[in-house]
Amino acid sequence: MNIITHGPGVAPVTLAEQLNSFLFTLLIGLMSGFAYDLYRVFREMVRPRRWGTYLGDFLIWVFLLVATFAALLVINYGEVRFYVLLGLALGAAIYLTLFSGPARRLIYRCIYLLARLARLVAAGAALLWRVVTFPFKVLVFVTAWPVVQAGRGFGLAGRRIGRAGRRIAGPPARRLSGNLRARWRSLFHRGKPPPE
């Protein structure tokens, strides 16, 4: 059994543990490539401006760096050795050369299917809403229609009564209001000279 030590006073790392760490870092490299493909598909769909692309690129690399370091902390206590870097690079290279194209097509297909499913759910919800609210619309129509018609009838009757009243009482009412205005003005403008 091959044993490699970290240094004085540190527990030895066996070759099996190193191989296990290498395989996990290979998996981390593959998952990082997939995460980058997700970001690429999102960027192609959104089409941000130049600064948006720069910001998105920066954020995805920060995310991948933090996620990779967190995974390395779990796998081998955050120790970065040559086989760890080799596993990360090899995993990303394998993903980008063999799986990137099919994975991106799969991502696009999933997004397309999810969008169709969302449209179907929205259409179903709209139909369900119409079915549920239809009895209430009928009830409102049945109760409101007579009230609306009565209001129209009263409005029409009121306009006709108003026209008839203006014909009958129009001239005397105009004379009365004119006389009242003249009296009102004479009370308050008595001591002032008329405007020139």
TrEMBL record:
UniProt entry tagged with the keyword Ion transport: no
Pfam families per the UniProt record, alphabetical: Spore_YabQ
Transmembrane segments annotated in the record for this chain: 22-42, 54-75, 81-99
Record keywords: Membrane, Transmembrane, Transmembrane helix
InterPro entries: YabQ (IPR019074)
Keyword Cytoplasm: no
Identification of the protein by name: Spore cortex biosynthesis protein YabQ
Native species: Desulfofundulus thermobenzoicus
